[in-house]
Amino acid sequence: MAKTDPYAALRFKEFNIFLLVRFVLVFGWSMQFIVIEWEVYSLTKDPLSLGVIGLMEIIPAFTMALFAGHIVDQKEKRNLLALCIAAFSIISFGLFLLTWPIIVSDWSTQTILYSIYALVFFGGFLRSFFGPTIFSLVALIVPKKVYPNAATWNSSTWQMASVLGPAFGGFFIGWIGVHWSLCIIFGLVVLSFLILLQIKRKPILNPKIGEPVIESLKEGVRFVFKTKAILGAMTLDMVAVLFGGAIALLPIFAQDILKVGSEGFGVLRAAPAVGAFLTMLITAYIPISKNAGMKLLAAIFGFGLSIIVFGLSSIFWVSVLALFFSGVTDGVSMVIRQTILQIKTPDHMRGRVSSVNSMFVGSSNELGAFESGVTAKLMGTVTAVVFGGTMTLITVITTGIVSPSFRKLDLTKDLEEHNKD
């Protein structure tokens, strides 16, 4: 298979099925998150309530992450993912019921709010299993020599779905309302489960089945902290996501600052998806392994600049353009980071390494939402967004200065070794 083949991973049937599952699942999950954000803010008109949504998901996702990684490394991946999706469908159906006037007409606003938070909390518990399971499964579907190409398509699919989902969520809120939007989400979750069954069960590659939990967790954490490339990529992205969480405040921008309603809200959420799609096309054809460290630093720096511009803008099309470039830069960052993780992680440790990554980066999305909600409450919405973007820039500059080894990171040799396998 040619090294320069931009469709190398797509030539494997199960990988195409996997991408479809991931797109549908992430589309539904992210659409659900934004619909619930809209509903909660509509109920409370309090920016802090948006932060609480993130907090409710981060607590179980963070605390369960390492234990989930241990279980993933011990279990068969296809069936474990199917079990997670089935549990997720229960959450989606529960949210559908909580927005049905027939059921909650006699409930107080506080009761509805707390019930939503409870289901989001359960979703955070499930999410601690989703990341490690998906990360481990994709490595069992394609050979090592196409990992970088698989990472490109995998990351771009996630990026597109994670922004297109909320974008359509914004449109659906205006078209059919919150309640029926959640009904569509439930249908998408069920669809992803049915598609997943087209992938065959995979072998368990961990030679230490039955290993004590504590020893297993220690091994995973030690590996991450001694592998500088992985640790650097995780840390950089964690801080960028933590302080660049302006997306969590989009309901406020749409309703109170730009005054564009739910339709404009959908456009704002769609803008990064267009940038992510462009990233997918470019990174599939242009290798990112050479000078990966500098490319990652540049991408996150560009992301921080985009967030600052968005925060300062009071013009709708400027805001859309800023979010478009945030999607481009975030997409590049994601592809490089996933390539580093796939190449540097041994097969038998993928669940645990991905769990540590979720603690660093994945959970930062929700923690970033909480940080944005708190800072918006204390500083004001615009100041909070500009502050977050500025902290991202400071982090990139500091990392580039104090870590020359990461700045010089190049994955070319690693890829050459995989191509020999």
Automatic annotation (TrEMBL):
Keyword Cell wall biogenesis/degradation carried by entry: no
CDD domains: MFS_MefA_like
InterPro entries in the cross-refs: MFS_trans_sf, TM_effector
UniProt-annotated location(s): Cell membrane
SUPFAM superfamilies assigned to the protein according to its UniProt record, in alphabetical order: MFS general substrate transporter (SSF103473)
Predominant place of localization: membrane
This protein's UniProt keywords: Cell membrane, Membrane, Transmembrane, Transmembrane helix, Transport
Transmembrane segments: 15-36, 48-68, 80-103, 115-141, 153-173, 179-199, 229-254, 266-286, 298-325, 378-402
Membrane topology: Multi-pass membrane protein
One Pfam family it belongs to: MFS_3
GO cellular component, one term: plasma membrane
UniProt cross-references to PANTHER family, sorted A to Z: ENTEROBACTIN EXPORTER ENTS, INTEGRAL MEMBRANE EFFLUX PROTEIN-RELATED
Name assigned to this protein: Putative MFS family arabinose efflux permease
Organism from which the protein derives: Mariniflexile fucanivorans
